[in-house]
Automatic annotation (TrEMBL):
Transmembrane segments: none
Pfam family, one: LRR_4
Keyword Secreted: no
Domain of life: Eukaryota
Transmembrane helix found in the keyword field: no
Organism annotation: Hexamita inflata
InterPro entries to which the protein is assigned, alphabetical: Leu-rich_rpt, Leu-rich_rpt_4, LRR_dom_sf, SDS22/Internalin_LRR
Protein name, entry field: Leucine-rich repeat domain-containing protein
Keywords on record: Leucine-rich repeat, Repeat
Length: 536
């Protein structure tokens, strides 16, 4: 049944109205009469027409709504606007929104953004994922404090050197961008240069106020050797992300006493970090790590060691870790975990585990990932009564009675198992429950849950035409993705051309998958209703 304007007015809380995936809403015009509405947030409503006049609204979000133009938006009091994930090209009318402070135009089809130079109060701008945008107007926007221009094909940072008030800058995924002019932006505190394939960071030496630096190289074909000497005078630097590159002169880290977070994943050879004392360390995808070096890191609370071919982690028992990820290390001995009583979050998925008795003493654990450990005995989980998040998919589990004492569970994934009886979940109140591809034949134990209609599951039944259609749809998406991966070989595109095309396809694919999931959820809901009616 179509909703009236009064239905929406009743949903306003704290001057805010949020609407998501509402197929009935097509007009915004009646919102102009809601004097108590200041923040209007609409997402995934492709039928909505962006026609709105209001003297009250100060924040507007229209994301994933297929907006093409802002021509009929008349919002003189607007301070924040997000039109992310649309197909917007015409933004001329934005010049009349003189109070705009924050503007998100990411993932659109923008080319000309010269109109933005008239927004003198604008300090926060996001134009990322606009692959053909003309960057030249940016040089006139000297009042900007935060700018995201990632994935916009910027080749030269010279046009940004006038933006001397910038504190946060994102130039990620602008491959082979010349960063030499960044030396003029001395107020920068946050800088993201990930996947720009930068090799020389000497231009960053004057940026002594930097607090967060990302020079990760995950998107680039080659692994570079990067001299980090220019960082030595950055006394405020707290976080460095430099994955998939080999760092030179790493003794510089010992001179940056403010350093708290360090991502050194995908190193060619492991580094000796015995002199460091960071709080967060990521060394995933690095083989041959000597964990003995970590014993001196008394401040370390979060450690990520995925894909490191680890077997012995006994040295970690001496650390006061709260967050540990050792996933994707088949053959690892997890017995030392029984002494790590300070753990709050633990990931040990894809480790070929069968016995997890070492976990039963971790009574403070709140989040646990155990997926893809075939034929695992989950009995010890009954002691982990503080768990709020548990991931047990793809473990060939037959029964889940061990979960019945876990009344604090809010998010549970038991998909891809052999579970028949879900009655142990009867007294739990989940915000998220997934049990796809099991052998469940009776949903009655959880039908009274308040969030039952949001759970993701499959009921034991013969496949319908809708199921077959959905399966075929996903097969087409997979084929499409495979084709895109092979495009450089087939079409002999340059690297940048390929990445631009791939990103556009990825956005379209994500939207298609979202629409498909909405369709499947609706089919499942209709099936449940029909079953309940038949039982009556």
């Amino acid at each position: 049944m179509k909703r009236s304007e009064y239905d929406y007015e009743d949903q306003i809380e704290n001057n805010t109205l949020q609407i998501t995936e509402d197929s009935y809403i097509t007009q915004l015009s009646f919102f102009q009469y809601f004097e108590n509405l200041e923040h209007l947030i609409i997402r995934h409503c492709p039928q909505v027409q962006p026609v709105l006049t209001s003297d009250f609204i100060t924040e507007l979000v229209l994301e994933h709504c297929q907006v093409r133009s802002t021509e009929q938006l008349n919002l003189p009091q607007l301070r924040e606007l997000s039109l992310s994930n649309n197909d917007c090209q015409d933004i001329i009318s934005l010049q009349f929104m003189q109070k705009l402070v924050k503007l998100n135009l990411s993932r659109n089809s923008l080319i000309n953004i010269s109109v933005l130079t008239k927004l003198l109060n604008l300090t926060d701008l996001d134009i990322s994922k606009n692959f053909n945008v003309d960057h030249s107007p940016l040089k006139y926007m000297t009042q900007l404090i935060k700018l995201n221009a990632g994935s916009t094909n910027i080749k030269n940072s010279a046009l940004l050197k006038t933006l001397v008030n910038l504190k946060e800058l994102d130039l990620s995924k602008n491959i082979d961008c010349d960063i030499s002019s960044l030396k003029y932006l001395v107020k920068l505190t946050h800088l993201n240069l990930s996947d720009t394939c930068v090799q020389d960071i000497s231009a960053l030496e004057p940026l002594i106020h930097l607090e967060d630096l990302n020079v990760a190289n995950d998107f680039c074909a080659n692994v570079f050797y990067v001299d980090i000497t220019p960082l030595k005078n950055m006394k405020k630097l707290q976080a460095i992300t430099s994955s998939n590159m080999q760092l030179l002169n790493t003794h510089i880290f010992n001179q940056i006493f403010s350093l708290k977070k360090l991502d050194l994943s995908k190193q060619i050879t492991p580094l000796n970090l015995s002199q460091l004392n960071v709080e967060y360390l990521n060394m995933s995808y690095t083989e041959g790590i000597d964990l003995n070096h970590l014993q001196s890191m008394t401040a370390l609370t979060s450690l990520h060691l995925q894909y490191c071919k680890l077997t012995n982690i006994s040295y970690l028992a001496f650390l006061n870790l709260r967050d540990l990820d050792v996933s994707y290390n088949p053959g690892i001995d997890i017995s030392p975990l029984e002494h790590m009583n300070s753990l709050i979050q633990l990931e040990i998925s894809y480790c070929n585990l069968k016995v997890i008795s070492a976990l039963k003493n971790l009574t403070t654990l709140q989040k646990l990932g155990l997926y893809m450990n075939k034929y695992i005995d989950i009995t010890p989980l009954q002691y982990l009564i503080q768990l709020t998040d548990l991931h047990l998919s793809n473990c060939e589990i037959l029964e889940i009675s061990a979960l019945s004492p876990l009344y604090n569970l809010k998010r549970l994934d038991i998909s891809q198992n052999q579970i028949i009886d879900i009655s142990p979940l009867q007294k739990m109140q989940f915000t998220s429950l997934r049990f796809l591809n099991n052998r469940v034949i009776d949903l009655s134990p959880i039908k009274k849950h308040p969030n039952f209609n949001t759970y993701v599951y499959n009921y034991q039944q013969q496949p319908t035409n809708e199921d077959l259609l959905a399966s075929n749809f996903m097969h087409q998406i997979y084929a499409w993705t495979t084709f895109i991966r092979n495009m450089p070989r087939r079409l002999k595109l340059s690297t940048q051309q390929f990445l631009t095309t791939q990103e556009k396809i990825r956005v379209a694919q994500k939207q298609m998958e979202l629409n498909l999931q909405m369709f499947i959820n609706k089919v499942n809901q209709l099936f449940i209703i029909s079953q309940m009616e038949s039982q009556q």
